[in-house]
Amino acid sequence: MRAIRAVTAGAVALAVAAAAGCRGGADAAPPHTGPLRVGLAYDIGGRGDKSYNDAAAAGIDEAKRNLSGMRVKEVAAARGEPARRKVERVRALAEAGYDPIIAVGYSYAPALRRIAPRFPRTRFAILDEPSVSGPNITNLLFAEEQGSFLMGAAAAMKSRTGDVGFVGGNRSPLVRKFEVGYVQGVKHVNPRARIRIVHLTGPHDLRGFESPAKARRAARRMYRAGADVIYQVAGASGAGVFRAAKCAGAWAIGVDYDQAKSADPAVRDVILTSMIKRIDVAVYDYLADVADRTVTSGRVVYDLKLGGVDYSLTGGHITDIQPRLEQLKQEIIHGRVKVSPG
């Protein structure tokens, strides 16, 4: 983690800030004094979802160990809550004096648009949302399409039927980036492959990320129809895909976290690999920059070159194809293979 942080917090963060039109003067956050009082607003599922939110929690835990005196207030979204609750949650953290405040997920964009301008001396960061901006907002972004390309390549190489699947938590632009990269990776390896795609809910409905039973039914239908590898990008619902894979004697691919380590032990052996998204690194980098008084507003993008996205080897299931995956990884990094985000 520290090796990645040394890169992102230095030249990369400054380069990205410069590209976004940010400079250390007008757009830099005001100096921080005293121990950090961090507000962390989780998305649905919160700490313990064994996926997206847990990756953010890992970054917070690492920061607690390394940044002296840091105090953290963690709050989570409730299933089915109205959008105004996120606004109220962020406002409550700001009014209580937490600074910085980290919003975990794009669903907090409306909240930051309303609250950040009202608290200009409070620093805000949001994960996976490029559209909200301001002199006190940092966008922590990832090249999910690049990591997902490798998942598609792995699926195509390990599939015996030439039939693979994708289960998305909803039909949002973020999930679309994973889907598009995955499809490109599959087709790069096997242009004739069949790709079955299901989204559990519509673009603004987050319940698809907390519906394991629904995900299990969707995956079961895919496996019965002939798919033998499914990539899930569905948060806590991914557990349902893993269960379906176990029953079908087929493969599933995890996301965000090395899920062969975090999922229920009963299903870990069917997790082919996981697309690791270093949310922990992004959160840690951001907090370290606040503590160092070097934080800037604007976009910071974590891609394959920076180690911000990658794949896991737990279980040894892709050892045989790792050399080819590494070759593709380098071709993406050096621009010889182009991966479109959508």
Automatic annotation (TrEMBL):
PROSITE patterns: PROKAR_LIPOPROTEIN. Keywords: Cell membrane, Lipoprotein, Membrane, Signal. CDD domains: PBP1_PrnA-like. The keyword Ligase does not apply. Gene3D superfamilies: 3.40.50.2300. The keyword Transit peptide does not apply. Its main location: membrane. Transmembrane segments: none annotated. Residues 44-338 form the ABC transporter substrate-binding protein PnrA-like domain. Residues 1-28 form the signal peptide. InterPro entries: BMP_lipoprotein, PnrA-like. It comes from the Bacteria. It is found in: Cell membrane. This is BMP family ABC transporter substrate-binding protein. The lineage of its organism: Bacteria, Bacillati, Actinomycetota, Actinomycetes, Streptosporangiales.
